[in-house]
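Hi F.,

I've been meaning to write this up properly since the lab meeting, where we talked about keeping a consistent format for the predictions we share between groups. The idea is simple: the sequence comes first, exactly as it goes in, then the structure tokens exactly as they come out, then a line or two of notes. No screenshots and no reformatting. I'm using this chain as the first example so we have something concrete to point to.
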Amino acid sequence: MLKTFRLLRFTKVISYLNATEHVKLSLKLFKLIFYLIVYIHLQACVWFYFTKLDETWFPIIDLIKSEFEFYHHGAVFTYCHSVWHSVSILNGDDLIPATAAQAIVASFLVFIGEFVHAHILGTISVVLTTMNRRANKFQETIEFATSTMKTIKLDPKVHN
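Output, unedited:
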């Protein structure tokens, strides 16, 4: 767990990397996706551990079906459902907490999830804008050349 904090240095590695700007921006996107996966995993583990303490919370599908075997399934089943609910928390979806303590924890997780969500969207926006900067600059150059040719009334048929 403590070694995961070493992954935060990946930003420095990207900035000092001897590569093109496009490669660096792509690495930043992959880094963002990796951090998101780690965040969702940790949140899923926290939510599952917290709800397993008293086993009063159940996924909504279990409540609809009146099946209360969620905590008696295998680790893969419970982990997959916990990840699903972690993504739901990230999106601010309803969790239907069973106790007041679960409502407080779910509220805290949704609150933190909204900041993570905003950070992700902001970072993706910045990265995509930066990646499109070169294409926009080229388009501006073409438009400038076209308008200059029109201004000086350059006839393209003369050069054929």
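Notes:
Residues 20-151 form one domain.
The first helix runs from residue 10 to 16.

If this format works for you, I'll send the rest the same way.

G.
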